UniProtKB/TrEMBL annotation:
<dbReference type="GO" id="GO:0005524">
    <property type="term" value="F:ATP binding"/>
</dbReference>
<dbReference type="Pfam" id="PF00005">
    <property type="entry name" value="ABC_tran"/>
</dbReference>
<dbReference type="InterPro" id="IPR027417">
    <property type="entry name" value="P-loop_NTPase"/>
</dbReference>
<dbReference type="GO" id="GO:0016887">
    <property type="term" value="F:ATP hydrolysis activity"/>
</dbReference>
<dbReference type="InterPro" id="IPR003439">
    <property type="entry name" value="ABC_transporter-like_ATP-bd"/>
</dbReference>
<keyword id="KW-0547">Nucleotide-binding</keyword>
<dbReference type="InterPro" id="IPR003593">
    <property type="entry name" value="AAA+_ATPase"/>
</dbReference>
<keyword id="KW-0067">ATP-binding</keyword>
<protein>
    <submittedName>
        <fullName>ATP-binding cassette domain-containing protein</fullName>
    </submittedName>
</protein>
<keyword id="KW-0813">Transport</keyword>
<feature type="domain" description="ABC transporter">
    <location>
        <begin position="3"/>
        <end position="235"/>
    </location>
</feature>
<dbReference type="InterPro" id="IPR017871">
    <property type="entry name" value="ABC_transporter-like_CS"/>
</dbReference>
Length: 263
């Protein structure tokens, strides 16, 4: 069993932002959530993490509706890395990563040895060992993103929800992060904009458009020239010469409108 969304609908201001989405990742898989800006990826992740409740449909954790599950059990099982984590408080990298251990603390405290081991491993995996005492607000955008990922890893979740985790990272850290997530023995759902990274790392892809699933399957099944043209409105060449024969996508520049060039 794992974290499943069944026919979820989320309505705001009379608009169906998520419109009947079913997402049932298999245990241990990495599922890429694709779609243009505003297609509902972040909203769906918020429904799956329990931050928002669906208007209709259900999100199930091990078969129990998320809203009925015990908060601590959800917090232990599901870790979230959202796009816009920020704080003005003077807090160090170590403090932020330690926040991931809160769900593991019972009424009589947790296991300090296990907490420290989880924090140390998470920090090492994300290449932050030298930065433990640095203040959060002095970090670069990419370093902050890695700290949030370290916090999620320190939580030792079974399910990991990541909203565009690579958007501030340089190419080395993008590849390292997705390699790490792909190798973790947990289920992950990752919203991504980079179709080549999605093709390279994900087991399954789900494509949203206007809140609906318009394609789902393996990267080779989903990432076709026809789908990319239809959903993203761009021309692309797709070949099978990515790593392990996965799709590799080469985009054509967009046609430029003369009036834009004229300023
Ligand atoms: N609380 C809200 N109230 C009203 N509209 C909302 C709310 N949250 C999101 N939306 C709208 O829902 C749509 C989907 O937003 P969402 O952030 O889920 O898209 P996304 O696919 O993650 O986009 P991006 O790729 O740009 O991050 C957008 O049009 C957004 O303006």
């Amino acid at each position: 069993m794992t974290l499943h969304a069944r026919e979820v609908v989320w309505e705001r201001g009379g608009k169906l932002i998520v419109n009947g989405v079913t997402l049932e990742p298999r245990q241990g898989q990495m599922v890429g959530l694709l779609g243009p800006n505003g297609s509902g990826k972040s909203s769906l992740l918020r429904l799956m993490s329990g931050v928002r409740r669906p208007t209709r449909g259900t999100v199930l954790l091990d078969g129990t509706e998320l809203s009925r599950a015990r908060r601590r059990e959800v917090a232990k099982a599901v870790a979230v890395v959202s796009q816009h984590a920020d704080t003005d408080v003077d807090i160090t990298v170590r403090d932020v990563v330690r926040l991931g251990r809160i769900p593991h603390r019972g009424a009589f405290g947790g296991d300090p040895g296990a907490d420290e081991a989880a924090v140390t491993a998470a920090v090492a995996h994300t290449g932050l060992t030298g930065k433990l005492d640095q203040l959060w607000h002095t970090l670069s955008g990419g370093e902050r993103q890695r700290v949030q990922i370290a916090r999620a890893l320190a939580q030792e979740p079974r399910e990991l929800l990541l909203d565009e985790p690579t958007n501030h990272l340089d190419i080395q850290h993008q590849l390292e992060l997705l390699t790490l997530v792909a190798r973790l023995p947990i289920t992950s759902v990752v919203a991504l904009h980079d179709l080549n990274l999605a093709a390279m790392f994900c087991d399954q892809l789900v494509v949203l458009q206007s809140g609906r699933v318009v394609a789902a399957g393996t990267p080779s099944e989903v990432l076709t020239e026809e789908l990319i043209a239809r959903v993203y409105n761009v021309h692309a060449r797709v070949s099978g010469d990515g790593p392990d024969g996965r799709p590799s996508i080469r985009f054509s520049p967009a046609p430029v409108v003369e009036s834009v060039l004229a300023g």
